Amino acid sequence: QVQLVESGGGLVQPGGSLRLSCSASGSIVSIYKMGWYRQAPGKQRELVATIVSGLNTNYTDTVKGRFTISRDNAKNTVYLQMNSLKPEDTAVYYCYARISTVLRGPGTYAFWGQGTQVTVSS
Q1: Beta-carbon neighbour count of residue 73 at 10 Å?
Q2: Residues of the chain scoring pLDDT < 50
Q3: Is there a contact between 28 and 101 (Cβ–Cβ < 8 Å)?
Q4: For the segment 80-105, what is each residue's pLDDT rounded down to a tens digit?
Q5: What is the DSSP string of 15-84?
Q6: CA distance 29 to 65
Q7: Is residue 96 classed exposed, middle or buried when 0-12, 13-18 and 19+ CB atoms within 10 A define those classes?
């Protein structure tokens, strides 16, 4: 079993900050990539940020300069620091990890967290 558990969502005012965290646990051999996606009502799920290493991060253009993704490999945890939040950031944020697990054979597989609601409103 592999499980991703997110925390840190909530309600903030425009310009405020939130820090999301996601920890992976279970039958993990290695984690290749971790990241965050989000889905607003009536919209497709979109990539927010991913991280393979401290030298390999990727952000969607709309969050560059405002969001920072980081990863603690020892804890199998990924974080998303969100600053200068805007109403258009309102969405359910999903943790993502591409993981190698002995339970499913060689290769890596995508796992998703349950989602955490982020609402930016005055």
Answers
A1: 12
A2: none
A3: yes
A4: 999 999 999 999 999 999 999 988 88
A5: T--EEEEEEEEES-SEEEEEEEEEE-TTS--EEEEEEEETTEEEE-GGGTTTEEEEEEGGGTEEEEEE-S
A6: 33
A7: buried
What's the confidence (pLDDT) of residue 104?
85
Helix (H/G/I), strand (E/B), else coil: 121: coil
pLDDT of residue 54: 63
Q: Which two tokens stand for residue 106?
A: 């060689």
Structure tokens at 115: 């989602």
Displacement of CA 68 from its chain's centroid (Å): 11
Q: Which residue has the tokens 């597989």?
A: 109
Burial of 22 (0-12, 13-18, 19+ CB in 10 A): buried
